[in-house]
Amino acid sequence: MSKESSSRFSRRLSLTQRYRLLLCFTIAVIIVYHFSRRHPEARRMSRVQGLRDNSSEFTLEGKPFRVLGGSIHYFRVPRAYWEDRLLKLRACGLNTVTTYVPWNLHEPERGVFNFQDQLDLEGYLRLAASLGLWVILRPGPYICAEWDLGGLPSWLLRDKNMKLRTTYPGFTDAVNSYFDQLIKRVAPHQYSKGGPIIAAQVENEYGAYAQDSQYMSFIKEALLSRGVSELLLTSDNREGLKLGGVKGALETINFQRLDPEAIKYLDSIQPKKPKMVMEYWSGWFDLWGELHHVFTADDMVAVVAEILKLDMSVNLYMFHGGTNFGFMSGAFAVGIPAPKPMVTSYDYDAPLSEAGDYTTKYHLLRNLFRQYRTEPLPEVPSLRERRAYQPVVIQQHLSLWDSLHFTDKPLKSEQPVNMENLPVNNNNGQSYGYTLYETVITGGGTLNSKNNIRDRALVFVDKHFVGVLDYKTQELPLLDGKGERTLNLLVENCGRVNYGKTLNEQRKGLVGDIELNKKPLRDFIIHSLDMKPGFVNRLHSTGHWRSMRQKPSFPGFFQSRLYVDGVPRDTFIKLPGWTKGVVFINGKNLGRFWSIGPQQTLYVPAPWLHKGNNQVIVFEEQETDGKILFASSPDYGMTVDVQ
């Protein structure tokens, strides 16, 4: 357009039209700017250089970058709350979310993969990207995470020669098959392809295991060969740094109290490299029968402040812990004679509580991180309302013995068979729950477990409870009786060890002979009670339930209805007067409860409830007072400071 034409055109526009054009142009610029911030994939054409460790500080697109991260595991948070938790992470001043990937959930049976619904990892990655968050992915295959068997699937243990976390072919073949499915799903979400993943971790804390000098190289190549092209990291505590690294991956450190010697060592093995605390432990996990661990907010934030003053990057483990729903909590076995199972809650005394509440830690961290961000922090999202529903009375019961009709066909075996080697679940064995072993005895005497019970057995003679066998109690007297009698052992898998060097010893159920008067018992009928949703639904629909007017027998299932008037709200279940068992809401397994504590409540997410009647089924081992209580806040028991 000529200068003269341009002048004529401008004269034709009224002042109002000019303002409108200017307004439209401004709005368009704002929309593009915010879209590009919330949708990093929109800028993929400009992405040249991802996260780099070529100097003493990270760079992203060649500019200095500090990872301010927090761990939120998608598999511990109801999918309906993913966005809420991630928005709260961003509002705290963090720029990165880290997550493990649990192999045992994504491949529950060999060759059967699940990346849908609650396990939609790609959906989680897309959501993080849409909120302007970067992601550090920790794909394992081993993750620890206080998760059953450290995230490894139990069907691996069907191989009697299995050597987990080594280059044993039975393990590497399974890893390759799993990574074929996993990596093709996550690779398109890498930074170089417009996605949020800026780094990936090679295995996890291998220095504490270190059973095979070739293993870490195998895992690294397994990632690279399938298209992982972003920065690679390893992660170890102070003791593990010397053995957990692999060439081509930046080593990072894990701790809770500031460890200057470990930081100094990290600097010596990686001079002129950025330093990062991959797991800064914001709290700690809990074990059944112990106290609830807390780490004071002032102490925690003081260490984070020191980390930042040292120009280090940091990832809070956990930022939001969530819940070990179902039977997925692991067990602890380091420095103690027998494993101790972990509780259902993974609140972890984290900055964001199990139910998504802000804590003192959250607010202090937000004030701290604000100083390291160039842009104003987003507004803090509002909290969700919670409700203490009215108590519900148990209406019906069904004995364990009557529930056996709804299990898979039992196995007849001369000798005991451990849980993982049972011919169930398409010959993948039983992973979780209880297993019932039944045989016939003809007299009394001393029953000796020979320490072959994993982990805890309720013992019955002719369906009458006679005692418990576990790691501490390995002998039980049985009274004499007339003729043949039925002996039952209901064995619970309380959770497989998730950390340490005993992973290959985590088979459950009866792992060897049980003796009566020093003679091995034989000829068993074995029932698998993994309590999957299909089993629970079959229980609910059966007509075999009995009224509470008839005295219940134990163990048993107890059914009631929670009526929700209006929009469902988060709540917590309390079971005073009950002993030990599992709670199901609308078929979903909320997890274990146990009167020995410390945990005294179970988290019930509102998205798992609906308006009107909600089905509640409780499996109880030994006693009940006939009602279920609800609370608006959790009770994690008496506390103890993390040492």
Describe the overall structure.
With 643 residues, this protein is an alpha+beta fold. The chain has 3 domains: 39-370, TIM Barrel (Alpha-Beta Barrel); 392-399 and 533-641, Galactose-binding domain-like (Jelly Rolls), CATH 2.60.120; 415-522, Jelly Rolls, CATH 2.60.120.260. Helices cover 21% and strands 26% of the residues. It has 13 helices and 37 strands. The strands form 9 sheets. An 8-stranded parallel barrel has the order 4-5-6-7-8-9-10-12, surrounded by 4 helices. Helix 10 runs parallel beside helix 11. It is globular, with a radius of gyration of 28 Å.
What's the arrangement of secondary structure elements?
Layout: H1 3-12, H2 15-38, E1 51-52, E2 59-60, E3 63-64, E4 68-72, H3 82-91, E5 96-100, H4 103-106, H5 121-130, E6 134-138, H6 169-186, E7 197-201, H7 215-224, E8 231-236, H8 241-244, E9 250-255, H9 260-269, E10 276-281, E11 292-294, H10 297-309, E12 313-320, E13 331-332, E14 340-341, H11 360-370, E15 392-393, E16 396-399, H12 400-403, E17 411-413, E18 434-441, E19 445-448, E20 453-454, E21 456-461, E22 464-469, E23 475-478, E24 485-492, E25 509-510, E26 515-516, E27 519-520, E28 524-529, H13 533-541, E29 546-547, E30 556-564, E31 571-574, E32 580-585, E33 588-594, E34 601-604, E35 612-620, E36 627-631, E37 639-641
Helix pairs in contact: 10-11
